[in-house]
Design brief:
The structure is a homodimer. Chain A has about 280 residues and is α/β, with parallel strands linked by helices. Helices cover about 50% and strands about 15% of the residues of chain A.
Chain lengths: ~280, ~280
Amino acid sequence: MTRRFETVTIIGVGLLGGSLGLALKARGLARAIRGVGHRQVSLDKALDVGAIDEAYLDAREASAGADLIVVCTPAGLVRAKLDEIRPVCSEGTVVTDVASTKGEICAHAQKTWPKPLRFVGSHPMAGSEKFGPEHAAANLYAGSVTIVTLGEDLAPDARQVVRDFWRGVGAAVIEIDPVRHDVLMARTSHVPHVLSACLARLAVGQGDVRPLVGSGFRDMTRIAAGRPEIWRDICLTNRDAILAGIDALIDDLAAVRDMIAASAPDSLEEFFRLGWEARREVLGE
Amino acid sequence: MTRRFETVTIIGVGLLGGSLGLALKARGLARAIRGVGHRQVSLDKALDVGAIDEAYLDAREASAGADLIVVCTPAGLVRAKLDEIRPVCSEGTVVTDVASTKGEICAHAQKTWPKPLRFVGSHPMAGSEKFGPEHAAANLYAGSVTIVTLGEDLAPDARQVVRDFWRGVGAAVIEIDPVRHDVLMARTSHVPHVLSACLARLAVGQGDVRPLVGSGFRDMTRIAAGRPEIWRDICLTNRDAILAGIDALIDDLAAVRDMIAASAPDSLEEFFRLGWEARREVLGE
């Protein structure tokens, strides 16, 4: 079923929020889209590209009377935004977000919002290294996967609204426990990202290495081009799982270091063989 | 100047050796190409695809009378092959190789070959995850970069032959000291490769994570698909530089680990910002 909304409020009109606005409009899924930003210049850009119908600097004002509110700020600001808008949410309002970490945000909502919860967390696995409403695209979510969080106190109709919303903009929906989400994302995305930055730093200061740099280095450092403040927030809001992942990685690196130091051919070949097999298993190839 | 060879001997007719044969023939740069393999089945494939004219199981027999010999075995076997063919090389024979590590191989040649040296090391930065003569391609080296080693005792005409050879098959040539080559490759290729295998291993055993795995993970583990025995040899023949690189990486990971454990937002943002800038500097963007 395609669900149409009367008023959708998007808090944070960057790449993700702006693309949601464009997708909702392109698919005729919302009568009115309100955008909230903390700088007028971002709001003007979002209006220019047609991602929102009305611009607000005040999240509360924009949230009053909305039937769906999507918090699209960086992960570190989501909890504060939820605190800010909670008083103006009506009984029917459904709230979600787009942050890449879910444990802390869902635990905060669980503690502070009335039950049954009408906040249901989301993590759309879409985006690019670009940012800002000027790069927003109506098809950003088409064919992507959005994770929607599970939880004991969620209002069933709110869960349904959030699932329908993401399917409406073209995403497939997977539901998962927020803590498990964070562990899996630490291992498949957050730790790789930290490492990508470390690798880029490792190659710097060695003189002009440009002619020697192949596609491997380029591939492995591509995600180091993400926005520093986004990744800072991810590290701060998924601390335990990322620390555990980094510790496991350091242990594995130390083990292969010892194999190299000992010139152990069989162990090294096995190490690389297991890496190869691990990749195939993870990717299901 | 385009240099034409009478007889070129290619020891090891896999992807790299087979592609050299095809490139030489396609460009009319060699009258006869001899291929050496340790299995008849590989030699038959190389004959089938037209990469070589004559097949040999014995490297000495194939090397006698050749004007150019290219050792295309895995890095760990190059020194033994050089020892094997040295007695049959005539005064005019020029020898090179294609191994990804250069320090040990060049030091070995320096110690064991007559001076002025007619062995000049090469590292063509071309290839793919595929292997075997059946994937050989005449244009594998076109537009690529080949590193040719420098050294005090090299015969000037042998250096010129090796440079002309690589330019003949379409590569640009950069000359560099073998030890410096190994340090730079450790930081831009070998350590990233070790890390890619570690990352793949980190994500395994967490249940079915396929729907959650994005392009970042895919990019960062792509090079983990290399052949285990090739990377084993690279680790064994570039030990010191790879160990130093892994140590630097573990230190950097431990530092960012401490920032995350301390929930230090400014340090973390700076860490990611420096990673971003390092990538741009290394790639010259």
